[in-house]
User: Fold these one by one.
Assistant:
Number 1:
Amino acid sequence: MFYEYIKNNPQWNLQINRQLEGIKESSKVKDDLKIIIPKLTNDASWYKTWFSFGELREKEEDHALACAYFGLAQFYLNQDDENKQTVVHRYLNNFYRAHTEIDYESYQVPYQKTFLPAIKVNINPTATKTLIIINGFDSFMEEILVAVNFFKGTDYNVILFDGPGQGRALIDNNIKFTPYFENPVSAIIDYFNLDEVDAMGVSWGGYFVIRAAAYEKRIKNVVCYDFFYDGLNTFLKDFSKDTRNHIRQLLQNNDVEKTNQLIPTLIHSDANLNFLFTKGYENTGTETPYSLLKEIERHTVKGIGHLVNQNVLLLAGKDDQYVPFNDLVLEQQELTNAKSLETKIFTKETGGEQHCQAGRYDLALVAIQKFLAAHCED
């Protein structure tokens, strides 16, 4: 279930539900949240409160809970914040201490004179297939790693990695976001010497996996968890229609000065938009609104969808707070040459209406399993 812990703050609610997935029904978490939630008033209190509770649970060796709390504590910290790396690595350390049941091997995949952190999970000893999972705009591969239990008993083992602009590839190796995600995906496939794979993209990874499938034909089946059509549409989603049109016109006219003057006035009092732009600067290495939006504009399925000739599953949350639901039909129209195209829409009535089915991940994972099983011989 998706809980509204804080009134009128969908961004904070999503992050809390996201990190506490699987443990939020425990009495300890419920007791903690009774103390934590009233303390959350701004970004500073957010960091201080989650960090202090992370330390408390870490001392008790409740590593699953410490992991979740440190994951929340680091979320809004800028990359140049002196606390960022320390908290990130406490988050990751507690993750692996909490999940000793996962049979994994860590790798460093050569990429652009450095490396991409990768994990191969050996779920099924006799598996003949590999699923590559691509994460998104603000996640670490470890966040998705807990989902591998859903693939027990299937014909799959799983490879996850932090790509450009993601997780430790960004934090530790300073590899920046790129729209051309076929390059890191091909590097992963080459490194593991795979002839064919299936691929799943999570959140912004829903764009990355379509982009990869358009140019990397060793990918056979494609899962967009959720669909993600256009980066600029996502960045501008919470502006009014008139404002969106005005910004697009400025970008089309390459009006650097007016764009850089306008955006700060629009986002200065909106914590969610401030986060989106601040994280965008961090991911891409850009420094101004104009340069960021021009970079994000390149993250689009428009114009490349016809190159995808694999089986495709699009998942969509009707109340997705990041990805405009109206973009779904645009993506469907782009995928004209897909071998097959399936769409699964989640609503409040079905559950899973939030971004990436936050609060009901199980519904999405069941749909993904069914899709992959149906196309196992393709």
Number 2:
Amino acid sequence: MSNYGLHILRFVILLLLQVLILNNIKLYGFVNPYIYPLFIILLPLNLNQIQALFLAFTMGLSLDFFENTGGIHAASCLVIAYIRPLVLRFSFGINYDYQTLKFYNEGFKQRFNYLAIMIFAHHLVMFSLEAFSFQHAMLVLKNTLYSGLFSLFLMLLIIQLIRKEK
């Protein structure tokens, strides 16, 4: 399968998994896993920034369409697509700068840092836009922390399952 086909398949699977299954999970009434940002996180490293922003907007807008959320997913996806090069440089250092980075070959610590920063940034923006009030700051932080931890766990599990063997 070509790279384009793989990315289209990943887009559709993550979107359908999020909409049909994961949006119906509410642990303790407020913890909801979001794994669709994995599409943006696993985009090719040599992808143009404009293309990454377009794909992120498309993923977020698609989810907003299904959930009728008014653009909060699109905005949060755009934020993580925009900060992605900075987070990659911070997490992987010189390997990213010299374009020698192979995501699955890097150490667990670097992958964990990258995933955690991207997930918590996404969740913080999404829950902040959802609440849209400083009065609910503690609720935003609570939702970000617990949903972020659950999402991080699921994404690490998914990455281990789809990891390409040598």
Number 3:
Amino acid sequence: MLKAGVLGAGHLGKIHLKLLQQSDAYELIGFYDANPKASEAIEKEFGYKSFPSMDALINACDMVDVVTPTIHHFECAKKVLEAGKHLFIEKPITHTVEEANIIRDLAKKHKVRGQVGQVERFNPAFMAVNHMIKNPMFIEAHRLAEFNPRGTDVSVVLDLMIHDIDAILSVVNSEVKEIHAGGVAVISETPDIANARIEFENGCVANLTASRISMKKMRKARFFQKDAYISVDFLEKKCEVVKMKDAPENPDDFAMILTNAEGVKKQIYFDNPEVDSNNAILDELESFANAINTDTTPVVSLGQGAEALRIAMKIIESFKTV
């Protein structure tokens, strides 16, 4: 088993500690948090070993899980990689694109693995259909959340929209051509609601909306491609696939047939894959263990994390020109 430690024991850090302790792929060594009182309380309540310093924890581990506030990601990740340890780091990978590129290059230099915590890649609804998403030409995503002060240290783009940016980049095999976006700060000092239109070189267009001041939660994405429509509900963990094929000469009485303006008849049919229940955070952590043990590329590599951040920052920059 890989010896694992956690840097940062806040809300999400506690979840990671619990799952690493449960996992058969890791041996949880302990954690380090900059708040001594919080560390003492967590150690007392849960029994996790608290380390006196970041360096002490890193030296005791094979893999370090960074779950600190984003502003500290670069400092922590740099120490982990320079110590020759494998790195799991929560999204967004770092505070700036320059930092993300340095982290990516450090992992290569020290020949260690790194994965970014983009948990929606492991959402069972997305996993059930992502192999069916082939050459989408229009994508629409809505990610709405109720206001929570936790996470408002960054823009809603880095807090919420980056999940959809990463998912979309994973299925669109093309470079980004142009971005148009707008954002509004309502409660926070940074935008709380944002919309972005991403145009790709191959003609695909993605329209993304994210809000953290909504009355209800929503996490949905729809993918439109030739002869197919695929819907993913990340919140409810449901998916729907609607496909079209050339209509048979003698369709049965219950067949749904459409005729276009050119007189071509198409039959509509539904293909709703089975969605297996899972713990997405546990799955992403264990998939990283598998990548380390088999010396393969992680599902969400540091390079992919850096690219998602680059696009997110382009969206934020475009706010200033609106």
